[in-house]
Specification:
By secondary structure, the protein is of the alpha/beta class. It is about 40% helix and about 10% strand. The strands form 6 sheets. Strands 10-9-12-13 form a 4-stranded parallel β-sheet, sandwiched between helices. A 3-stranded parallel β-sheet has the order 11-15-14, with helices on one face. Strand 6 and strand 7 form a beta hairpin.
Length: about 475
């Protein structure tokens, strides 16, 4: 469960207020009051003054409306005008992330710092180990010449007093692919040519300056429309909200969704397909005189697929051709009713990219979005009656794919139902710099396994960037 910081609480509060104004049919008229109501003059400000607080909230309201700060028309544009843009647009904003520059505090460049714990010792190993000779001692205290320092960090390990510390930029530290960095104005920006949409930066920034662009208004408009709207919920839903799963289904229908489908049903097809393809690959290997690398990796994590495409292209030949559980479920629903609106609800931002690239999916909500919708609709899950999912029969094994290693274990079990051959399965739990290096070893045949499951989020989808754990669904 992620820590529910003040930044998360403010995001939830703003999203709730935006939804309330939509439900009151006064979105354009009342949006301007949200910054004032959330930051009245009598309340102490978190910035230099209450007026900057309100300006920051304005941009966060824009994100809740589905408008990125990069899409700002002009600074004088009112929230009511952005509300009109949200109400009139025909499709959701394709942007997934945005950086709020005026909230970014321009963190100093990641660097090493000599603290007062320095003793100016005789040995001075920090000065001798430094390859750039950037460390010098003056008046019994070591100093770093930042004009020469290349941030190698050797001085940290050399100091016997642990007097040298590393000061990171939190969002840069969390990004394993170097997609977020400083521009010429010393403010963070996201290089989307490098980004894999893992969403880790949104939780890492202490100032909440990295924003997720919401599709809440788009979904609410669809619910208000004439088409049938289906909710496709991730198997990671368990443990996110209070009450039973069946009570949760009732809650989603009270919001206005027509049907609720569990994506885990598509997981059954994924498991079956993966085990059959793996069997075929192993059979081809045994019949071949060549020592082929019989490796297959999972393909259900959209952030991992972006990682392969942008950083490990040599792994692409080993990625399974199976669709994700979400796509299998959406395909089935579309074949039954091609005119229905299909909305995925999960913990992942990268799923928004998957939805954009699908012909059978329309929108993507996060668990955080859904929590705000429940609050705005004043729905208490635990007080509701129970409603069965569609379909009513579930498979617990398919639900475990939301946990790291769950898919690999399920594929191995399905494989042994029809085979006696021994296979090796492994899973990569969370994408870090070290794990990317490990993936390259598999891609280059320096490490061998038969089936490799990769989950970008440590712990699996249940710990996605937009997971909420059992957060208290309160409006304050």
């Amino acid at each position: 469960m992620k820590h529910l910081s003040n930044a998360h609480k403010l995001k939830k509060q703003i999203t709730v207020e935006v939804i309330k104004e939509f439900l009151s049919d006064k979105l354009e008229e009342n949006l301007k009051y949200i910054p004032v109501n959330l930051r009245p003059r009598i309340k102490s400000s978190s910035r230099c003054c209450v007026y900057k607080d309100r300006e920051l909230i304005k941009y966060r309201v824009m994100a809740a409306l589905g408008v990125a700060t990069e899409d700002e028309i002009e600074e004088a544009t009112t929230l009511g005008e952005y509300g009109k843009v949200a109400l009139e647009r025909k499709s959701a904003n394709k942007r997934i992330l945005s950086v709020l520059n005026i909230a970014c505090q321009s963190c100093v460049k990641a660097r090493y710092l000599v603290t007062e714990a320095c003793k100016g010792c005789l040995a001075r190993p920090c000065t001798t180990v430094c390859p750039q000779q950037t460390i010098y001692v003056k008046d019994g205290q070591a100093y770093i010449d930042y004009a020469k320092c290349n941030n190698c960090g050797k001085c940290v390990d050399a100091c016997p007093y642990s007097a040298i510390i590393h000061i990171p930029v939190p969002c840069e530290k969390e990004c394993s692919v170097g997609a977020i960095k400083k521009n010429a104005y010393n403010q963070q920006y996201i290089d989307f040519d490098k980004c894999i949409y893992c969403g880790k930066c949104t939780n890492a920034c202490p100032f909440g300056a990295v924003l997720e662009i919401s599709q809440v208004i788009d979904v609410l408009k669809a619910i208000k429309g004439e088409k049938k709207v289906n909710a496709l919920i991730s198997p990671a839903i368990e443990g996110q909200f209070p009450g039973t799963l069946e009570q949760f289904v009732t809650a989603i229908k009270e919001i206005g969704f027509d049907e609720v489908y569990e994506v885990a049903s598509g997981g059954l097809k994924l498991i079956k397909n993966e085990s059959e393809v793996l069997e075929q690959k192993l059979r081809c290997k045994s019949e071949s005189s060549q020592n082929n690398n019989c490796l297959m990796t999972s393909s259900s994590c959209p952030a991992y697929l972006e990682l392969v495409k942008k950083y490990i292209p040599e792994m692409a030949q080993y990625v399974s051709q199976s669709k994700s559980p979400l796509q299998y479920t959406a395909d089935k629903l579309s074949s039954e009713n091609s005119d229905a609106v299909n909305v995925f609800i999960g913990s992942c931002m990268a799923n928004k990219l998957e939805v954009q690239n699908s012909d059978n999916l329309d929108f993507c909500l996060t668990f955080e979005d859904l929590g705000a919708m429940l609050i705005a609709h004043k729905i208490d899950i635990q007080s509701l009656s129970e409603t069965s999912l569609s379909p009513s029969k579930h498979n617990n094994e398919a639900k475990t794919i939301a946990k790291a290693g769950g898919l690999a274990a399920a594929v191995e079990k399905a494989f042994f139902e029809n085979n006696t051959d021994k296979i090796d399965v492994h899973h990569i739990d969370g994408v870090t710099i070290d794990k990317i290096a490990e993936l390259k070893l598999y891609a280059n045949k320096e490490k061998i396994t038969n089936y490799l499951e990769v989950t970008t989020c440590e712990g699996g989808c249940q710990n996605g960037p937009c997971s909420i754990g059992l957060m208290k669904l309160k409006s304050s």
